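User: Second chain of the day. Same drill as before.
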Amino acid sequence: MIFYLFVKRLFDIICGLIGIILLIPLTIIIKIAYICHGDFHSIFYAQKRIGKKGKEFTIIKYRSMVPGADKDLSKLLEDNEALKEEYKENKKLRKDPRITKVGRFLRATSLDEMPQFINVFCGKMSVIGNRPYLPGEKEDMGKYFDDIVTLKPGITGYWQVSGHNDMNFKQRLQLEQEYAKKASLLFDAKIFFATFRVLAHKKGI
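Assistant: Same format as last time:
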């Protein structure tokens, strides 16, 4: 396990550094795209997430929703019972009305995840790992929580390359518990290369 964690961290540092370098031109392009759509707000989005051993950290992403989207969610669910049930089941909305036109492209290509390489380089996340869950989802994670937080959350992971769009919240938790128990260099390598396959088919991760 010590060797696995050492190699994993070394890989994360290398990928994190490369990712940060790529962020420079990408950030400029995305900022211009938002300005062209009349959106002059920050293109970055920061949010508290659950990290290794249950410790919270601040995740960084490109903003794919309208400003203040977190506050809009409560009202959106209150006004629409169908959306409320969907969110309760999946912890996300398939056709979220808060997503911007630029954000829709960022999500389809998974470019919104790129700033997370900053988290990876700083050691808060890993390239491969479980989803970084919201603090408010801890109770819903139930018995799966302790296993899932034994490792750092990742930019991509087992459930992201396993047809996640067809899975509900509980099914995702089951997959992530499985990853936490079977994590290895070989397993990580399979997930890493499978991520490119998923992206090539434009399914997002």
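The longest helix spans residues 2-36.

User: Great, on to the next one.
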